[in-house]
Amino acid sequence: MGVCSLATAFRQSAHLLLDQQYKLLLDTWSLGEIQEAFSLILEIEQHTNFHVLPPNHRQHSAIPHLQFIYDRLQKIFGLRLWAKVGQSLPQNETISLRCFRNLQALELLHIPVTSLKALQTLRPTLRSVIIVKGLTRLSDLFIRCGADKAGEFAWEQLQEAVLAHNSLYSLDHSLSLLPNLKILDLSHCELEDASALEYLPTVSLLDLSHNQLRLLPRLSPTATYSLIVLIANNNLFSHISGLHEMNNIEELDLRDNVLSLKEALSPIGALPHIRVLKISGNPITWDLNYRSQIIRQLNPATANHKVVFDDVPLTGQEYDEVGMHAVPAGSSYSPELLSSLSSLCSPVNPISPAHGLISQPLYSPEEADLIQLDPVDSQPASLVNDSAPVSLKNSGNGQPRRKSKKKRTRHIAITDPDNEDMDNDSIHLA
Questions:
Q1: How far lies 98's CA from each of 130, 132, 174, 311, 338, in Å?
Q2: Of 36, 113, 184, 305, which sits 20 to 30 A from 140 (CA to CA)?
Q3: What's the confidence (pLDDT) of residue 262?
Q4: Is the pLDDT of residue 15 over 90?
Q5: pLDDT of amino acid 42
Q6: Rounded CA gap, 312 and 294, in Å?
Q7: Which whole-number Å values give the CA distances from 298 to 159, 280, 356, in the listed order?
Q8: DSSP secondary structure string, 322-373?
Q9: Cα-flanking dihedrals φ and ψ of residue 229, to 5°?
Q10: Strand pairing report for 183-185 and 312-313
Q11: pLDDT at position 331 over 70
């Protein structure tokens, strides 16, 4: 698509480009071509920021179109950047985000964070970051800002960080730079140690599913108070010591772990607000009476609101059993019980997850490996309407409450309005 055609398409989609519900889709090759074309009007090498050249440099007929494209790119709110199959970045090559001045949502698919430049200039505006298969250390993103090699500065506006399908293995103290984060997705990250979550100031939804964790991580005091949704299915938990501190949890997913004794679930008795509980796929569910045993361990206060247990709402008779064997709030395991739980529950391969109400991954492992953008792959640029996977709203008592919302994605391709060949003065980008 030539510059003139791209500018025409941008004009036709101007109302969408400036809509916060849409993201502009670009592959790395097209972005590079666009930025190379900007060199006709911008002094990139001599200045830290873009500067418009004097009028005598504007002899080319495509200059007005380039200026319009550049103006629109500075104003868009959302960007999804991806690498086509066979177009991976050469070693030491970087991708500049310098022409995106107002981004609030950035999504990277199969692009190493360490290849990004000008990411630090977006720290004051970014509200959502999604990175799939492009991150090996959190500090590369939150401290160094990719190739910028920046320092430790807070991401004041960041509320959502979806970092699924990355090879992280462990976390680091850079989480302390996210003071207002509400949603953190670390699923499918091969995590063996998540102890650094204690640096996280606050979070409402935490997804640790599909990792290799054996211990439930401790959170900071403010984070234990703010946590509403904990997704921890498909790990290696034989007990859930520390859960009693997270007493504002409303939704808890512990499916497909190695919980084998009813005593292992006694900390749920300290959760008075629990509304959704999932433990299917654990050895404890092999007991035909497990449902009744667990219901009796629930906090008595849960009888005052609707509770869904393993996708089935509690019956009237089950409500009568709620709290009969609940452990007092604040109680923890004895050392003897912890030793017993750990020795009885040897690691096993997690069972395939059942689809439930809580855990709705952004991308499956297969999709993360093969992800391309369907019909719009053939276009250098397109728009996508991408609603957040989870939204949180304020409840009556001032606490954020999770609101389930069906994800609906709408693609709008930016295509060439004319099939005629461009004139000789046009600059072709693809």
A1: 19, 21, 24, 47, 53
A2: 36
A3: 87
A4: no
A5: 61
A6: 14
A7: 31, 16, 20
A8: TTTTPPPTT----HHHHHHHHHH----PPPPPPP-SS---SS-HHHHHH---
A9: -125, 125
A10: unpaired
A11: no
CA angle 59, 75, 386 (to 5 degrees): 130
Tokens of 16: 């969408």
Whether residue 351 has pLDDT greater than 50: no
Phi/psi of residue 393, nearest 5 degrees: -125, 165
Q: Is 294 helix (H, G, I), strand (E, B) or coil?
A: helix
Q: What is the DSSP letter of 131?
A: E
Q: What is the pLDDT of residues 412-430, one digit of tens each?
A: 444 444 444 444 433 333 3
Q: Which residues are paired to 308 by β-bridges?
A: 276, 313
Nearest C-alpha neighbor of 281 from the set 299, 258, 251, 305: 258
Residue given tokens 């709008």 in the structure block: 412
Q: Where are the beta strands (DSSP E) in 21-169?
A: 22-27, 78-82, 95-96, 105-109, 116-117, 128-132, 160-162
How many Å apart are CA 170 and CA 168, to the nearest integer? 5
Please report the pLDDT score of residue 192 as a whole number.
95
Helix (H, G, I), strand (E, B) or coil at 59: coil
**Predicted pLDDT at 427:** 35
**How is residue 161 written in tokens?**
């960080």
What is the residue whose two structure tokens read 């090996």? Answer: 136
* pTM score, whole prediction: 0.78
> How many angstroms separate the first and last alpha carbons of the chain?
5
Region 160-176: what's the mean pLDDT? 96
Integer CA distances (angstroms), 71 to 75, 78, 379, in order:
7, 15, 21
Alpha-carbon gap, residue 5 to 10, rounded angstroms = 9
Q: What is the mean pLDDT of residues 145-162?
A: 95
Which residue reads 């996280």 in tokens?
A: 200
How many other C-beta atoms are found inside a 10 Å radius of the C-beta of residue 59? 9
Burial 214-244 (b: 16+ CB within 10 A, else e): bbbbbbbeebbebbbbbbbbbbbbbbbbbbb
